[in-house]
Amino acid sequence: MNTVVDAVRNSSLIREHQHIVIGLSGGPDSMCLFSVLKNLSAELDLKLYPVHVNHKIRPGEAEADQAFVERLCRESGLDCYSVEFDCRAAAEARGETTEETGRWMRYEAFRARAEALCEQGVDRKDIAVALAHNADDQAETIMFRLMRGTGVGGLSGMAAEREDEAGFRIIRPLLEIPKSRILEYCREHDLQPRTDRTNASTEYARNRIRLELMPALRQYNPHIREAILRLGRSAAETRDYLDTMAAAYMKEGMERRGETGLCFRKDLAELHPALRKHIIGKALGTLGLFQDMTSAHYSGIEAILRSGSPSASADLPHGYRACMEYGRLVLRAPSRAAEAEPAHVRLALTVLPAEEADFPPGAAVFDADALEDAYGSDFVTKITLRTRGSGDFLGIRGGRKKIQDLFVDEKIPKEKRDRIPLVAIGREVLFIPRGDCGPSRPRYSANYALSPDTKRVITVEIIGIV
Ligand SMILES: Nc1ncnc2c1ncn2[C@@H]1O[C@H](COP(=O)(O)OP(=O)(O)OP(=O)(O)O)[C@@H](O)[C@H]1O
Questions:
Q1: Lysidine-tRNA(Ile) synthetase C-terminal domain spans which residues (predicted)?
Q2: Where do the DSSP E strands lie in 338-379?
Q3: How far does the centroid of ligand 1 lie from the alpha carbon of residue 237, in Å?
Protein backbone atom coordinates (compact mmCIF):
# COMPACT_ATOMS: atom_id res chain seq x y z
CA MET A 1 0.00 0.00 0.00
CA ASN A 2 1.49 3.32 -1.06
CA THR A 3 0.36 6.05 1.31
CA VAL A 4 1.49 9.00 -0.80
CA VAL A 5 -0.29 7.79 -3.93
CA ASP A 6 -3.41 6.99 -1.87
CA ALA A 7 -3.35 10.34 -0.14
CA VAL A 8 -3.19 12.15 -3.49
CA ARG A 9 -5.87 9.91 -5.03
CA ASN A 10 -8.16 10.56 -2.05
CA SER A 11 -7.47 14.29 -1.86
CA SER A 12 -10.20 15.05 -4.45
CA LEU A 13 -7.78 17.47 -6.12
CA ILE A 14 -7.05 15.15 -9.03
CA ARG A 15 -10.06 14.72 -11.26
CA GLU A 16 -10.47 12.12 -13.96
CA HIS A 17 -9.56 13.10 -17.56
CA GLN A 18 -7.67 16.19 -16.39
CA HIS A 19 -4.83 17.87 -18.25
CA ILE A 20 -2.23 18.61 -15.61
CA VAL A 21 0.58 21.13 -16.07
CA ILE A 22 3.20 20.22 -13.47
CA GLY A 23 6.01 22.45 -12.18
CA LEU A 24 9.00 20.13 -12.29
CA SER A 25 12.15 21.58 -10.77
CA GLY A 26 13.88 18.20 -10.41
CA GLY A 27 13.92 18.51 -6.59
CA PRO A 28 12.43 15.85 -4.27
CA ASP A 29 8.94 17.41 -3.96
CA SER A 30 8.20 17.85 -7.64
CA MET A 31 9.90 14.54 -8.54
CA CYS A 32 7.65 12.80 -6.04
CA LEU A 33 4.53 14.55 -7.39
CA PHE A 34 5.50 13.75 -10.97
CA SER A 35 5.98 10.08 -10.08
CA VAL A 36 2.67 9.93 -8.19
CA LEU A 37 0.75 11.54 -11.06
CA LYS A 38 2.37 9.21 -13.56
CA ASN A 39 1.27 6.32 -11.33
CA LEU A 40 -2.30 7.58 -11.36
CA SER A 41 -2.41 8.64 -14.98
CA ALA A 42 -3.66 5.37 -16.49
CA GLU A 43 -6.26 4.81 -13.78
CA LEU A 44 -7.61 8.39 -13.92
CA ASP A 45 -6.88 9.09 -17.58
CA LEU A 46 -4.59 12.06 -16.81
CA LYS A 47 -2.45 13.92 -19.34
CA LEU A 48 0.73 15.43 -17.91
CA TYR A 49 2.61 18.48 -19.19
CA PRO A 50 5.85 19.09 -17.27
CA VAL A 51 7.24 22.63 -17.16
CA HIS A 52 10.77 23.44 -16.03
CA VAL A 53 12.10 26.94 -15.35
CA ASN A 54 15.83 27.61 -15.43
CA HIS A 55 16.36 30.75 -13.34
CA LYS A 56 20.05 30.98 -14.34
CA ILE A 57 20.96 31.64 -10.72
CA ARG A 58 23.33 28.71 -10.31
CA PRO A 59 25.45 28.60 -13.48
CA GLY A 60 26.28 25.03 -14.43
CA GLU A 61 24.02 23.41 -11.84
CA ALA A 62 20.90 25.02 -13.27
CA GLU A 63 21.74 23.72 -16.75
CA ALA A 64 22.39 20.26 -15.31
CA ASP A 65 18.96 20.38 -13.55
CA GLN A 66 17.32 21.36 -16.81
CA ALA A 67 19.05 18.55 -18.74
CA PHE A 68 18.07 16.07 -15.99
CA VAL A 69 14.38 17.08 -16.12
CA GLU A 70 14.32 17.09 -19.92
CA ARG A 71 15.86 13.61 -20.06
CA LEU A 72 13.41 12.29 -17.46
CA CYS A 73 10.49 13.64 -19.48
CA ARG A 74 11.84 12.12 -22.71
CA GLU A 75 12.18 8.76 -20.96
CA SER A 76 8.58 9.09 -19.77
CA GLY A 77 7.42 9.84 -23.31
CA LEU A 78 6.46 13.42 -22.40
CA ASP A 79 7.45 16.78 -23.86
CA CYS A 80 9.12 19.14 -21.40
CA TYR A 81 8.33 22.83 -21.75
CA SER A 82 11.53 24.55 -20.58
CA VAL A 83 11.85 28.25 -19.96
CA GLU A 84 15.21 29.95 -19.36
CA PHE A 85 15.51 33.46 -18.00
CA ASP A 86 17.98 35.58 -16.10
CA CYS A 87 16.20 35.86 -12.76
CA ARG A 88 18.83 37.99 -11.04
CA ALA A 89 18.89 40.64 -13.80
CA ALA A 90 15.08 40.73 -13.95
CA ALA A 91 14.85 41.07 -10.15
CA GLU A 92 17.35 43.94 -10.15
CA ALA A 93 15.52 45.73 -12.94
CA ARG A 94 12.21 45.42 -11.09
CA GLY A 95 13.54 46.12 -7.61
CA GLU A 96 12.36 42.74 -6.33
CA THR A 97 14.09 39.87 -4.57
CA THR A 98 15.10 36.95 -6.78
CA GLU A 99 12.56 34.84 -4.85
CA GLU A 100 9.73 37.19 -5.83
CA THR A 101 10.79 37.42 -9.47
CA GLY A 102 11.37 33.67 -9.68
CA ARG A 103 7.89 32.99 -8.31
CA TRP A 104 5.91 35.16 -10.71
CA MET A 105 8.11 34.05 -13.62
CA ARG A 106 7.31 30.41 -12.81
CA TYR A 107 3.60 31.17 -12.63
CA GLU A 108 3.87 32.92 -16.01
CA ALA A 109 5.53 29.83 -17.48
CA PHE A 110 2.86 27.50 -16.06
CA ARG A 111 0.13 29.75 -17.36
CA ALA A 112 1.72 30.01 -20.80
CA ARG A 113 1.76 26.19 -21.03
CA ALA A 114 -1.86 26.02 -19.90
CA GLU A 115 -2.92 28.71 -22.41
CA ALA A 116 -1.18 26.75 -25.16
CA LEU A 117 -3.36 23.76 -24.25
CA CYS A 118 -6.47 25.92 -24.54
CA GLU A 119 -5.34 27.03 -27.99
CA GLN A 120 -5.10 23.36 -28.92
CA GLY A 121 -8.74 22.97 -27.97
CA VAL A 122 -8.57 21.75 -24.35
CA ASP A 123 -11.33 23.21 -22.19
CA ARG A 124 -9.95 25.68 -19.60
CA LYS A 125 -11.84 24.00 -16.77
CA ASP A 126 -10.20 20.66 -17.59
CA ILE A 127 -6.73 22.08 -16.97
CA ALA A 128 -4.97 22.14 -13.59
CA VAL A 129 -1.53 23.45 -12.64
CA ALA A 130 0.03 21.16 -10.02
CA LEU A 131 2.66 22.42 -7.60
CA ALA A 132 4.55 20.24 -5.14
CA HIS A 133 4.37 22.26 -1.91
CA ASN A 134 4.33 19.95 1.12
CA ALA A 135 3.15 20.17 4.73
CA ASP A 136 6.47 21.59 5.93
CA ASP A 137 6.27 24.33 3.26
CA GLN A 138 2.78 25.11 4.51
CA ALA A 139 3.89 25.46 8.15
CA GLU A 140 6.84 27.65 7.08
CA THR A 141 4.54 29.83 4.96
CA ILE A 142 2.26 30.41 7.94
CA MET A 143 5.22 31.31 10.17
CA PHE A 144 6.61 33.61 7.48
CA ARG A 145 3.32 35.48 7.22
CA LEU A 146 2.89 35.58 10.98
CA MET A 147 6.21 37.33 11.35
CA ARG A 148 5.59 39.72 8.47
CA GLY A 149 2.20 40.61 9.93
CA THR A 150 -1.02 39.08 8.69
CA GLY A 151 -4.68 38.44 9.36
CA VAL A 152 -6.91 35.42 9.32
CA GLY A 153 -6.50 35.07 5.53
CA GLY A 154 -2.72 34.96 5.70
CA LEU A 155 -2.74 32.57 8.64
CA SER A 156 -4.70 30.10 6.53
CA GLY A 157 -1.55 29.44 4.52
CA MET A 158 -1.55 28.28 0.91
CA ALA A 159 -4.77 26.93 -0.55
CA ALA A 160 -4.73 23.29 -1.64
CA GLU A 161 -6.89 24.40 -4.54
CA ARG A 162 -7.70 27.79 -6.02
CA GLU A 163 -8.50 29.34 -9.35
CA ASP A 164 -6.00 31.79 -10.83
CA GLU A 165 -6.96 34.98 -12.67
CA ALA A 166 -6.92 33.13 -15.99
CA GLY A 167 -9.41 30.54 -14.72
CA PHE A 168 -6.96 27.64 -14.29
CA ARG A 169 -7.10 25.51 -11.15
CA ILE A 170 -3.90 25.66 -9.12
CA ILE A 171 -3.62 22.49 -7.06
CA ARG A 172 -1.17 21.36 -4.39
CA PRO A 173 -1.71 17.62 -4.01
CA LEU A 174 1.18 17.12 -1.54
CA LEU A 175 0.17 19.89 0.83
CA GLU A 176 -0.81 17.49 3.62
CA ILE A 177 2.27 15.32 3.22
CA PRO A 178 5.36 15.92 5.37
CA LYS A 179 8.71 16.40 3.70
CA SER A 180 10.10 13.31 5.47
CA ARG A 181 7.46 11.14 3.79
CA ILE A 182 8.28 12.65 0.41
CA LEU A 183 12.00 11.91 0.83
CA GLU A 184 11.12 8.36 1.80
CA TYR A 185 8.99 8.03 -1.34
CA CYS A 186 11.90 9.29 -3.46
CA ARG A 187 14.19 6.67 -1.90
CA GLU A 188 11.64 3.84 -2.25
CA HIS A 189 11.16 4.69 -5.93
CA ASP A 190 14.83 5.41 -6.60
CA LEU A 191 13.95 8.83 -8.06
CA GLN A 192 17.35 10.40 -7.35
CA PRO A 193 16.12 13.99 -7.21
CA ARG A 194 18.46 16.93 -7.74
CA THR A 195 19.54 19.00 -4.76
CA ASP A 196 19.37 22.76 -4.99
CA ARG A 197 22.40 24.17 -3.15
CA THR A 198 20.59 27.47 -2.51
CA ASN A 199 18.14 25.60 -0.24
CA ALA A 200 20.93 25.44 2.34
CA SER A 201 21.72 29.16 2.10
CA THR A 202 20.52 31.33 4.95
CA GLU A 203 20.60 34.33 2.60
CA TYR A 204 16.91 33.70 1.90
CA ALA A 205 14.30 34.42 4.57
CA ARG A 206 12.37 31.25 3.74
CA ASN A 207 15.45 29.12 4.25
CA ARG A 208 16.19 30.75 7.60
CA ILE A 209 12.70 29.82 8.78
CA ARG A 210 13.24 26.22 7.69
CA LEU A 211 16.82 25.88 8.88
CA GLU A 212 16.83 28.01 12.04
CA LEU A 213 13.38 28.96 13.30
CA MET A 214 11.52 25.67 12.90
CA PRO A 215 14.24 23.59 14.62
CA ALA A 216 14.27 26.15 17.47
CA LEU A 217 10.48 25.92 17.83
CA ARG A 218 10.65 22.13 17.83
CA GLN A 219 12.60 22.37 21.06
CA TYR A 220 9.50 23.88 22.68
CA ASN A 221 7.07 21.50 21.00
CA PRO A 222 8.28 18.49 18.99
CA HIS A 223 4.94 18.57 17.14
CA ILE A 224 5.10 22.25 16.28
CA ARG A 225 4.47 21.64 12.57
CA GLU A 226 1.14 19.93 13.32
CA ALA A 227 0.23 22.70 15.77
CA ILE A 228 0.86 25.35 13.10
CA LEU A 229 -1.06 23.38 10.48
CA ARG A 230 -4.04 23.06 12.84
CA LEU A 231 -3.96 26.80 13.38
CA GLY A 232 -3.88 27.22 9.59
CA ARG A 233 -6.91 24.95 9.10
CA SER A 234 -8.84 26.70 11.83
CA ALA A 235 -7.97 30.12 10.36
CA ALA A 236 -9.09 28.87 6.93
CA GLU A 237 -12.50 27.88 8.37
CA THR A 238 -12.91 31.25 10.04
CA ARG A 239 -11.87 33.00 6.83
CA ASP A 240 -14.33 30.95 4.75
CA TYR A 241 -17.14 31.86 7.15
CA LEU A 242 -16.21 35.55 7.08
CA ASP A 243 -15.88 35.42 3.27
CA THR A 244 -19.45 34.12 2.98
CA MET A 245 -20.82 36.73 5.37
CA ALA A 246 -18.84 39.51 3.70
CA ALA A 247 -20.02 38.50 0.22
CA ALA A 248 -23.64 38.62 1.39
CA TYR A 249 -23.18 42.04 3.00
CA MET A 250 -21.36 43.50 0.02
CA LYS A 251 -24.20 42.53 -2.33
CA GLU A 252 -26.68 44.65 -0.39
CA GLY A 253 -24.64 46.92 1.83
CA MET A 254 -22.10 48.43 -0.51
CA GLU A 255 -22.39 50.48 -3.68
CA ARG A 256 -19.82 51.37 -6.27
CA ARG A 257 -19.78 55.09 -6.82
CA GLY A 258 -18.87 55.49 -10.47
CA GLU A 259 -15.28 56.53 -10.58
CA THR A 260 -15.23 57.99 -7.12
CA GLY A 261 -14.96 54.79 -5.11
CA LEU A 262 -17.18 52.84 -2.75
CA CYS A 263 -19.89 53.69 -0.27
CA PHE A 264 -21.14 51.48 2.57
CA ARG A 265 -24.51 51.25 4.29
CA LYS A 266 -24.88 53.10 7.58
CA ASP A 267 -25.06 49.88 9.61
CA LEU A 268 -21.41 49.03 8.82
CA ALA A 269 -20.35 50.62 12.11
CA GLU A 270 -22.72 48.34 14.06
CA LEU A 271 -21.39 45.05 12.66
CA HIS A 272 -19.10 42.86 14.71
CA PRO A 273 -15.57 44.29 14.27
CA ALA A 274 -14.25 40.98 12.87
CA LEU A 275 -16.86 40.99 10.10
CA ARG A 276 -16.57 44.74 9.54
CA LYS A 277 -12.80 44.54 9.07
CA HIS A 278 -13.19 41.59 6.74
CA ILE A 279 -15.74 43.46 4.62
CA ILE A 280 -13.54 46.53 4.47
CA GLY A 281 -10.56 44.33 3.50
CA LYS A 282 -12.57 42.73 0.70
CA ALA A 283 -13.81 46.12 -0.48
CA LEU A 284 -10.24 47.43 -0.54
CA GLY A 285 -9.36 44.34 -2.57
CA THR A 286 -11.90 45.35 -5.21
CA LEU A 287 -10.15 48.74 -5.42
CA GLY A 288 -6.74 47.09 -5.76
CA LEU A 289 -5.52 48.57 -2.46
CA PHE A 290 -5.41 45.46 -0.27
CA GLN A 291 -1.72 44.63 -0.82
CA ASP A 292 -0.57 48.08 0.24
CA MET A 293 -2.76 48.47 3.32
CA THR A 294 -1.00 48.67 6.66
CA SER A 295 -2.49 48.27 10.12
CA ALA A 296 -2.28 52.07 10.46
CA HIS A 297 -4.60 52.46 7.46
CA TYR A 298 -7.13 50.07 9.02
CA SER A 299 -6.92 51.90 12.35
CA GLY A 300 -7.53 55.17 10.49
CA ILE A 301 -10.72 53.78 8.95
CA GLU A 302 -11.91 52.40 12.28
CA ALA A 303 -11.23 55.76 13.95
CA ILE A 304 -13.30 57.77 11.47
CA LEU A 305 -16.12 55.21 11.65
CA ARG A 306 -16.10 55.52 15.43
CA SER A 307 -16.07 59.31 15.34
CA GLY A 308 -18.77 59.39 12.64
CA SER A 309 -17.69 62.97 12.05
CA PRO A 310 -18.12 64.28 8.52
CA SER A 311 -14.90 66.21 8.90
CA ALA A 312 -12.83 63.13 9.73
CA SER A 313 -10.84 61.48 6.97
CA ALA A 314 -8.03 58.97 6.66
CA ASP A 315 -5.47 58.51 3.93
CA LEU A 316 -5.36 55.18 2.11
CA PRO A 317 -2.81 53.87 -0.39
CA HIS A 318 -2.67 55.29 -3.94
CA GLY A 319 -4.28 58.60 -3.05
CA TYR A 320 -7.57 57.05 -1.90
CA ARG A 321 -9.26 58.50 1.13
CA ALA A 322 -11.75 57.16 3.64
CA CYS A 323 -14.33 59.64 4.92
CA MET A 324 -17.86 59.82 6.28
CA GLU A 325 -20.68 61.15 4.11
CA TYR A 326 -24.08 61.41 5.79
CA GLY A 327 -23.14 58.71 8.28
CA ARG A 328 -21.84 56.34 5.62
CA LEU A 329 -18.25 55.26 5.13
CA VAL A 330 -16.95 56.23 1.70
CA LEU A 331 -13.69 55.10 0.17
CA ARG A 332 -12.96 57.85 -2.31
CA ALA A 333 -10.80 57.57 -5.38
CA PRO A 334 -8.17 60.27 -5.91
CA SER A 335 -9.37 63.27 -7.87
CA ARG A 336 -8.61 63.31 -11.58
CA ALA A 337 -6.03 66.05 -11.16
CA ALA A 338 -4.19 63.99 -8.61
CA GLU A 339 -4.25 61.06 -10.99
CA ALA A 340 -2.80 63.20 -13.74
CA GLU A 341 0.07 64.09 -11.43
CA PRO A 342 2.86 61.63 -10.69
CA ALA A 343 1.50 58.72 -8.66
CA HIS A 344 3.13 59.91 -5.44
CA VAL A 345 1.25 63.24 -5.38
CA ARG A 346 -1.75 63.12 -3.11
CA LEU A 347 -3.81 65.24 -0.77
CA ALA A 348 -3.67 64.83 3.00
CA LEU A 349 -6.34 66.59 5.09
CA THR A 350 -6.41 66.63 8.87
CA VAL A 351 -8.94 68.35 11.10
CA LEU A 352 -7.87 68.90 14.69
CA PRO A 353 -8.70 71.20 17.62
CA ALA A 354 -6.59 74.36 17.29
CA GLU A 355 -4.43 73.54 20.30
CA GLU A 356 -3.49 70.14 18.83
CA ALA A 357 -2.93 71.20 15.22
CA ASP A 358 0.53 71.17 13.78
CA PHE A 359 1.74 73.13 10.79
CA PRO A 360 3.94 71.03 8.52
CA PRO A 361 6.18 73.07 6.22
CA GLY A 362 4.56 73.63 2.84
CA ALA A 363 1.08 72.87 4.17
CA ALA A 364 -1.87 75.26 4.22
CA VAL A 365 -4.05 75.74 7.29
CA PHE A 366 -7.60 77.08 7.47
CA ASP A 367 -10.32 77.66 9.98
CA ALA A 368 -12.35 74.44 9.77
CA ASP A 369 -15.48 75.96 11.32
CA ALA A 370 -15.49 78.82 8.82
CA LEU A 371 -15.30 76.26 5.99
CA GLU A 372 -18.07 74.23 7.59
CA ASP A 373 -20.27 77.33 7.79
CA ALA A 374 -19.76 77.96 4.09
CA TYR A 375 -19.90 74.40 2.71
CA GLY A 376 -21.74 72.29 5.24
CA SER A 377 -20.73 69.66 7.75
CA ASP A 378 -19.28 67.34 5.10
CA PHE A 379 -16.99 70.05 3.71
CA VAL A 380 -13.90 67.80 4.03
CA THR A 381 -15.28 65.34 1.50
CA LYS A 382 -15.77 68.18 -0.99
CA ILE A 383 -12.16 69.31 -0.97
CA THR A 384 -10.30 68.08 -4.04
CA LEU A 385 -6.88 68.26 -5.60
CA ARG A 386 -7.29 69.19 -9.27
CA THR A 387 -6.17 71.53 -12.00
CA ARG A 388 -7.91 74.82 -12.95
CA GLY A 389 -11.42 75.00 -14.32
CA SER A 390 -13.49 77.87 -15.67
CA GLY A 391 -14.89 80.18 -12.99
CA ASP A 392 -12.23 79.27 -10.41
CA PHE A 393 -11.48 82.04 -7.94
CA LEU A 394 -9.39 82.70 -4.86
CA GLY A 395 -10.74 84.59 -1.88
CA ILE A 396 -8.56 87.66 -1.21
CA ARG A 397 -8.93 90.37 1.39
CA GLY A 398 -11.92 92.47 0.40
CA GLY A 399 -13.06 90.27 -2.51
CA ARG A 400 -12.09 87.54 -4.90
CA LYS A 401 -9.59 87.11 -7.69
CA LYS A 402 -10.09 84.97 -10.80
CA ILE A 403 -7.48 82.24 -11.06
CA GLN A 404 -7.15 83.14 -14.75
CA ASP A 405 -6.12 86.69 -13.75
CA LEU A 406 -3.79 85.44 -11.06
CA PHE A 407 -1.94 83.26 -13.58
CA VAL A 408 -1.69 86.17 -16.02
CA ASP A 409 -0.34 88.48 -13.28
CA GLU A 410 2.17 85.81 -12.35
CA LYS A 411 3.23 85.51 -16.03
CA ILE A 412 2.69 81.75 -15.94
CA PRO A 413 2.94 80.46 -19.53
CA LYS A 414 -0.37 79.17 -20.97
CA GLU A 415 1.00 75.66 -21.58
CA LYS A 416 1.84 75.32 -17.88
CA ARG A 417 -1.48 76.52 -16.50
CA ASP A 418 -3.27 73.21 -16.89
CA ARG A 419 -0.59 71.40 -14.94
CA ILE A 420 -0.69 73.50 -11.79
CA PRO A 421 -2.25 71.60 -8.88
CA LEU A 422 -4.92 73.45 -6.91
CA VAL A 423 -6.76 72.51 -3.77
CA ALA A 424 -10.35 73.59 -4.23
CA ILE A 425 -13.84 73.24 -2.86
CA GLY A 426 -16.36 73.72 -5.62
CA ARG A 427 -15.06 76.63 -7.74
CA GLU A 428 -13.37 78.21 -4.79
CA VAL A 429 -9.63 77.67 -4.64
CA LEU A 430 -8.22 77.26 -1.15
CA PHE A 431 -4.55 76.72 -1.83
CA ILE A 432 -2.07 76.84 -4.72
CA PRO A 433 1.35 75.54 -3.72
CA ARG A 434 4.50 77.13 -4.99
CA GLY A 435 6.03 74.77 -7.53
CA ASP A 436 8.09 74.28 -10.63
CA CYS A 437 5.25 75.38 -12.85
CA GLY A 438 3.14 77.12 -10.21
CA PRO A 439 3.20 80.66 -8.80
CA SER A 440 6.37 82.12 -7.32
CA ARG A 441 4.84 81.99 -3.82
CA PRO A 442 2.04 79.86 -2.41
CA ARG A 443 -1.47 81.35 -2.45
CA TYR A 444 -4.02 80.80 0.30
CA SER A 445 -7.67 81.71 0.46
CA ALA A 446 -8.16 84.69 2.76
CA ASN A 447 -11.74 83.62 3.46
CA TYR A 448 -10.85 80.94 5.99
CA ALA A 449 -7.67 82.34 7.48
CA LEU A 450 -6.96 81.43 11.11
CA SER A 451 -7.91 83.98 13.74
CA PRO A 452 -7.53 84.15 17.54
CA ASP A 453 -11.09 82.68 17.65
CA THR A 454 -10.28 79.62 15.53
CA LYS A 455 -11.38 76.47 17.36
CA ARG A 456 -10.64 73.78 14.76
CA VAL A 457 -7.90 73.81 12.15
CA ILE A 458 -7.83 71.93 8.88
CA THR A 459 -4.34 71.19 7.57
CA VAL A 460 -4.09 70.76 3.81
CA GLU A 461 -0.96 69.11 2.54
CA ILE A 462 -0.06 68.10 -0.99
CA ILE A 463 2.27 65.19 -0.45
CA GLY A 464 4.86 64.69 -3.16
CA ILE A 465 5.08 68.27 -4.49
CA VAL A 466 8.62 69.60 -4.47
N1 LIG B 1 12.57 25.73 -11.40
C2 LIG B 1 11.33 25.28 -11.36
N3 LIG B 1 10.76 24.81 -12.48
C4 LIG B 1 9.51 24.33 -12.47
N5 LIG B 1 8.73 24.28 -11.38
C6 LIG B 1 9.26 24.73 -10.24
C7 LIG B 1 10.57 25.26 -10.16
N8 LIG B 1 10.80 25.63 -8.89
C9 LIG B 1 9.68 25.36 -8.20
N10 LIG B 1 8.74 24.81 -9.01
C11 LIG B 1 7.38 24.36 -8.64
O12 LIG B 1 6.86 25.24 -7.67
C13 LIG B 1 6.65 24.54 -6.45
C14 LIG B 1 6.99 25.43 -5.29
O15 LIG B 1 8.35 25.70 -5.28
P16 LIG B 1 9.00 26.72 -4.27
O17 LIG B 1 8.59 26.39 -2.89
O18 LIG B 1 10.44 26.83 -4.58
O19 LIG B 1 8.28 27.94 -4.86
P20 LIG B 1 7.52 29.22 -4.42
O21 LIG B 1 6.47 29.40 -5.48
O22 LIG B 1 8.51 30.27 -4.24
O23 LIG B 1 6.81 28.81 -3.14
P24 LIG B 1 6.36 29.63 -1.91
O25 LIG B 1 4.93 29.89 -2.19
O26 LIG B 1 6.64 28.56 -0.87
O27 LIG B 1 7.19 30.85 -1.74
C28 LIG B 1 7.54 23.32 -6.56
O29 LIG B 1 7.06 22.31 -5.72
C30 LIG B 1 7.44 22.99 -8.01
O31 LIG B 1 6.24 22.31 -8.29
A1: 383-460
A2: 346-353, 364-367
A3: 26
